[in-house]
Structure formats: structure tokens, C-alpha cells
Design goal:
heterodimer; A: mainly alpha; 0% strand; B: 8 helices; 10 strands; globular
């Protein structure tokens, strides 16, 4: 039914619109001082100036959004890329070889429960106040989810597929490259999706403490200047970028894992 | 010289936790001549799959040797094609790439791989499904892909482990006929594991009857029935009766042995 389809498309907007409308009404009611909980319209106004430099109400940040966004984004990208490369390589090695697992895994499992944030003092001492400590933190946050999922994927690779590969004449290296790695990809992607979330959380944390640029820095700086509208605009920007990064990974995943399309319970069309 | 020679082969599965070792195979001696189609027939748990896995190189014998064309088997290799109980295809590769998996490892050009795969896809009757994925085909079709994958390596020996076990009666008969057709066309040595007497008698030039616990070869019967084989003909039934008698006396012996032990 076309009517129902139409309704379903609108469904997803109902909750956000209601929340925004309620929030706007509450802020304008005067129950709280307007400065403490800016209305969505005020936030949008500040955000617009931050992005486009419309009327200069965000002062030094006016029209500066793209730069702030790009500094955060480049840190996420750098840390995430390093984490992915290292975690996948190590994960495959640990999952494939019992000897590597025995040597490396206990150390990693001891490092894992240490919250990445608690590395901040050391990161600042080692790397100073700049990009590097932030990238290091992003790396720590993204590394473990990707690593654990990769190990899981490699270990769960169907032994019969490996036998089939050995039967057609594959050596160990070929079996890893052509069977174990593709078989582990669904798990690796699950790890990447968890990892990109941690990556954004840690960039923002690092920017509040150890870096003087980026969305997290704007957020913290605006807090000092009592610009809660800008604080909220920064939060929304982080949410939006996190969502877009996840969307990007999902798009790559849909391309790479296209063979999984028809393996849902209901099958394909 | 025989293509496959198995001599004094034994396999003992060690079970340190229960302190009870299981003798899966005990002093197996078989020679399989070139172009022979040998069916290993026996009850479940008689070690017939273990025997096949040792010819394939997936498992190592506890004692004794397996040689193929004079080469002692120590590991799996592309001189022996294996068709598994489940098709075991790579779910991320389309049918033609599964068939040409051997060539992918050899590093052939894509166009060339595709052309060679096509020959074998046509041979097993899957023309038109080259770009489908295994999850999109039925069990019987996937099993054909597995056969095509093994044939493409042009192996000395093809080892089949109850490949039609999971198929319905109708599909199984079709596949059996096709396997015989392919074997007659291409020649080659086949070792085929089954627990179906009719299947063994429909396919094999020889049937090796195995007994269980410990797995031993009881008798190797040459089958000289004309092809295509008619499972309702008197000669067919005569051979079948002989095998049934063997299996029955086997059970009686086992019962006597257990009574002796008590």
C-alpha cells in the first residue's frame, strides 16, 4: 500500500521532531535561564555562524567549522588507519598461530582494561601538545575492538574451507590470503564499526585536554566562555560526523561483503 | 603399478582424557589400479572417512603407508581432488571462481581462468549459473560445483566422501549417473566412500566391504555388472545379497564376541 509506505518514511522523523519541539518550548518557557539551556533555534543560529560566518555571533569561531571539523577528522582518520593496520595484522597472526597467541595475547589482555583516557598524561609527556597525543589516543581506542574481532573471525574460520583450500594446492600463506582473511572479513568489519565509535570519543576527549584545535577544543573553550549554544552545536557536529563515518564504513562493507546479501532469514528478492 | 597403494595402515585416535585409545583402522591393505572406481562400503564409524582423509593427506597414519603413483602421502595436494560430504565452497566467491580456485592459487589471468572454469561448469551441467553465489544454489547444485572444482585440477585420483549423502533420492540418482558418465569420459581413479549398498553397486568397479571397531577391510569384490546398471536386475540383487550376508555375519560375529567377553 502506497499510503503505508509514505507513513513509514515519515515515522523515523517523529521522535526527533517531537524532542526538538518540546525542547524549544521548554527553553522559551523561562523555567530555566535561557543561557543554561539554549533553545534549538539558538543552537542552529550559532551553528550556522560557526559554519558559514553568517553574523559573527560566534566571534573567533565564525566560519571556522570546516577547519575545526577537518582537524578532528584527520586525527580520527590517522589513528583509526594505524589501529586498523596493526590490529588486523596482529589479530590474524594471533588467530592463526597458537605460538603467537601464547607469546603476545596475555600482554595485550593486560593492556586492554586500562582506559585509553588514563594514557593522557603519558601521551602528553611523550608527544607534547599537538596532533600526536590525540592520534595515539584514537589508536588505543580503536585498536582493541578491531583486534578482538579479527582474532574471533580468524579462529572461527570453517576448518573444512581450509581443508578444501589445501586440497586445491594452497600453502599456508595462500590459505591465509585467500580463505582465512575473506572468511574473517565480516568480523573485522564489525570491529571497525565499534572502533570508529571509540575513535571519535577519544579524539574529542584528547582535544579537550591535549590539543588546541578541533571540535572537542571548541566545545571545551565555549564552555569557558559560557556559550552553551556553541557547546551544543559542537556536540551535534561530533554526533553527525560519527554517524557519517559509520555510514562510510557500512558503504564499504556493503561493497566488500556483497555476497552476504542473500543470507538473511528471508532470503533475497 | 597400482595408482594407490595402502599397506599395513593403522590409525589409533589417542584420547588422553579418557585414557581409552580408539583403533579406527587396523592393518588396512588395498591396491587401487589406474582407472578403477573403488567404493568403500561400511557402517558408520567403521573408519572409511578416516581412510579417505589419510589418502587425501588431511590425517596422518599411526603406522603404515599410503602412496599415490609411488609418492608417499604426507600432506594434501592438488594431485588428489577431494569432493566433501558438504560442498565446502567459499561463500564469498561466485560459482566460476570456486571452480577455478586452483587456478587462482596458481596465479592465472582472469580471462584464462574463466575460460577453463567454463568447461567444467558445462560438464557438470551448471551452465548459466557462473556468476551466482553458493548461497543462491541448492545443495545438489553446490555439490556439482565441488565436483567441478576437483575435476579442474585434472588430478590422478578423485576422493569422494559420501558426496551425495545429503541429497534426495531423485537428485542422488541423477548425480550418480552423471558421475559415471564423467568418469567414463575422462577416465581416472576414484575412491568413493558410501554407506549405501545400492550406491556402491551402481558406481563401482570394485566394492571394498569394511567392518567396524576396529575398521578392517573384509573383502574386495569386483563388480562386473554391465553399465548402465539396473538396480532391479537379478544379477544386481545377487551381488547385493552376497554383501548383505557379509554384513550380517559381521554383526553376528560381533554379538558373539561381546557375549564371550561377558
Amino acid at each position: 500500500m502506497p499510503g503505508l509506505q509514505h507513513l513509514r518514511r515519515l515515522d523515523r522523523y517523529v521522535v526527533p521532531v517531537l524532542i526538538l519541539a518540546g525542547w524549544e518550548a521548554f527553553s522559551r518557557s523561562g523555567a530555566l535561564p535561557a543561557a543554561l539551556l539554549p533553545a534549538p533555534s539558538t543552537v542552529v543560529w550559532a551553528w550556522a555562524d560557526w559554519v558559514f560566518g553568517t553574523d559573527g555571533n560566534t566571534q573567533t569561531y565564525s566560519g571556522h567549522w570546516v577547519y575545526d571539523m577537518a582537524s578532528s577528522f584527520s586525527r580520527v582518520l590517522a589513528g583509526f588507519a594505524i589501529a586498523t593496520a596493526l590490529a588486523v595484522a596482529l589479530g590474524v597472526a594471533i588467530g592463526w598461530s597458537r605460538a603467537t597467541e601464547v607469546v603476545i595475547e596475555p600482554t595485550l589482555q593486560m593492556l586492554r582494561p586500562i582506559p585509553p583516557v588514563s594514557w593522557i598524561p603519558l601521551a602528553i609527556i611523550w608527544f607534547g601538545i599537538a596532533n600526536k597525543p590525540a592520534i595515539f589516543l584514537v589508536f588505543l581506542g580503536a585498536f582493541f575492538p578491531i583486534l578482538l574481532n579479527t582474532i574471533h573471525g580468524v579462529k572461527n574460520c570453517d576448518r573444512n574451507l581450509i581443508r578444501a583450500g589445501a586440497m586445491v594446492g594452497g600453502n599456508n600463506r595462500e590459505l591465509l590470503r585467500f580463505i582465512v582473511l575473506p572468511a574473517a572479513l565480516p568480523n573485522i568489519f564489525a570491529g571497525l564499526r565499534i572502533g570508529i565509535g571509540s575513535a571519535w570519543m577519544l579524539t574529542v576527549t584528547a582535544e579537550m585536554v591535549a590539543v588546541k584545535s578541533g571540535l572537542g577544543y571548541v566545545l571545551w573553550d565555549s564552555y569557558y566562555f559560557l556559550r552553551y549554544d556553541l557547546v551544543l552545536a559542537a556536540m551535534a557536529s561530533i554526533g553527525l560526523l560519527g554517524y557519517l563515518s559509520d555510514l562510510g564504513i557500512r558503504a564499504v562493507m556493503a561493497r566488500v561483503l556483497h555476497w552476504q546479501r542473500n543470507t538473511t532469514i528471508q532470503g533475497g528478492e | 603399478m597400482a595408482t594407490i597403494e595402502i599397506s599395513h595402515l593403522s590409525k589409533i585416535f589417542k584420547d588422553p582424557k579418557r585414557k581409552a585409545d580408539v583403533t579406527a583402522l587396523d592393518d588396512i591393505n588395498i591396491e587401487v589400479a589406474k582407472n578403477q572406481f573403488l567404493c568403500l562400503l561400511g557402517p558408520s564409524g567403521c573408519g572409511k572417512s578416516t581412510l579417505l582423509n589419510m589418502i587425501a593427506g588431511f590425517e596422518k597414519p599411526s603406522s603404515g603407508t599410503v602412496t599415490v603413483d609411488g609418492q608417499r602421502i604426507a600432506a594434501p595436494g592438488s594431485d588428489r581432488g577431494v569432493v566433501f560430504q558438504q560442498a565446502n565452497l567459499m561463500p564469498w566467491l561466485p560459482i566460476w571462481e570456486n571452480v577455478a580456485f586452483h587456478l587462482l592459487l596458481r596465479g592465472g589471468q582472469k580471462g584464462e581462468r574463466r575460460a577453463i572454469a567454463q568447461r567444467y561448469i558445462d560438464m557438470v551441467g551448471l551452465t548459466g549459473f557462473e556468476n551466482h553465489y553458493p548461497s543462491e544454489l541448492s545443495g545438489g547444485m553446490n555439490q556439482r560445483v565441488g565436483i567441478a572444482r576437483a575435476l579442474l585440477m585434472n588430478p590422478q585420483v578423485i576422493l569422494m566422501d559420501e558426496p551425495f549423502g545429503a541429497l534426495d533420492e531423485q537428485t542422488r540418482m541423477d548425480m550418480q549417473n552423471e558421475l559415471v558418465r564423467i568418469w567414463q569420459q575422462h577416465q581416472g581413479t576414484i575412491v568413493f566412500v558410501t554407506h549405501g549398498i545400492d550406491e556402491a553397486l551402481t558406481l563401482g568397479t570394485h566394492v571394498a566391504i569394511m567392518s567396524a571397531r576396529p575398521g578392517r577391510i573384509r573383502e574386495i569384490i569386483p563388480i562386473e555388472l554391465p553399465r548402465p546398471r539396473d538396480i532391479t536386475s537379478p544379477q544386481f540383487n545377487q551381488t547385493k545379497r552376497h554383501i548383505l550376508d557379509l554384513l550380517r555375519s559381521e554383526r553376528a560375529n560381533q554379538t558373539l564376541e561381546t557375549m564371550d567377553q561377558q
